[in-house]
Amino acid sequence: NIVYEIIDLQKTYSKGKKVANEGINLHVFSGEILGLLGPNGAGKSTLVKQMVGQLKPTKGTISLYGLDVSKHSKQVSRLVGYYSQEPHAISSLTVQEAILITGRLRGMSSSDAKRETNYWLDRLELGEIRTKQLKRISGGQRRIVGLATTIIGNQPVLILDEPTNELDPIKRKLVWDIIRERNRDYGATILLVTHNVFEAEHVVDRVGVVKDGRLLVLDSVGPLKKLV
Ligand code: ADP
Ligand code: ADP
Question: Is Manganese there in the keyword field (predicted)?
């Protein structure tokens, strides 16, 4: 069962004619956790931004459950929870409002959204800052709120772009537990972008290595140990 099918994808940024992705072919299968590993500037974020429809491919196609991503942005946003590296740019919403509103936008009833919001505030230890505005909390706290807004609504696909970056070890472990749980207990298909090899080895089923805009997919994480 194929969730994402990417065929011969290329992305060239108009500014500077920078080729950020080239010749990328990828199948993401239902129920897997696929890691995307690679150094800074390799082209990982460019790839996932195209997968969620935030950037238009220069060449090639991306389909999600058979839908062309660049033509079905509404459906894509209903199916995919996306965690970007810049979650919640400065906003006046409070922590709990941001989570609740996201749940409502994804079609949850008011009472379900409230219950889920309370659950994630508790689970992610955000209770004490629930009424603080996003612009008044720390970058690390904003990342955790970003994770809550990614997950709420039980999306079948999660695309997480370096969700554990700059988190303390305890929070990082909590995020790993949540990722595995979404996959195992809720059947979510997950794409996890990371430059942390330990994270890839411990969380993902399969891994793709991105380098200089190109992607090499490995069948298991075993060969990673030889590459690094
Ligand atoms: P597109 O090809 O999608 O139209 P552009 O080249 O026009 O993209 O750039 C989109 C935005 O990204 C612009 O606001 C630009 O200033 C910014 N940008 C340009 N270079 C970089 C870079 N190296 N890294 C991150 N952002 C950049
Ligand atoms: P990664 O996520 O692996 O760190 P990116 O996809 O962010 O890599 O960047 C890949 C390449 O594309 C880099 O050389 C980066 O500077 C460039 N780039 C990223 N965004 C833009 C942009 N908006 N405009 C121009 N170049 C960009």
Answer: no
Measured CA to CA, the distance from residue 39 to residue 145 in angstroms comes to 26
Does ligand 2 lie within 6 Å of residue 41's CB atom? yes
Atom number, ligand 1, closest to the C-alpha of residue 56: 3
Q: What is the dihedral of CA 190, 196, 200, 201, to 10 degrees?
A: -160
pLDDT digits (tens, 9 = 90+) for 5-23: 999 999 999 877 889 999 9
Cross-strand bridge partners of residue 4: 28, 64
pLDDT band at 85 (very low <50, low <70, confident <90, very high): confident
Atom of ligand 2 nearest to the CA of 45: 2
User: What value of ipTM does the predicted structure carry?
Assistant: 0.71
The whole-angstrom separation of Cα 84 and Cα 7 is 23
The answer to whether 133 and 92 have CB atoms below 8 angstroms apart is yes
Ligand nearest to the CA of 20: 2
Residue 63 dihedral angles phi and psi, to the nearest 5°: -120, 145
By C-alpha distance, which of 9, 2, 16 is closest to 51? 9
- How do beta strands 157-161 and 80-83 pair? parallel
Is residue 41's pLDDT more than 90?
A: yes
Which helix (H) or strand (E) segment holds residue 194: the answer is: strand 189-194
Cα(78)–Cα(27) distance, rounded to whole angstroms? 20
For ligand 2, atom 24: residue with the closest CA: 13
Mean pLDDT of 98-126: 96
Residue 55: Cβ within 10 Å count? 18
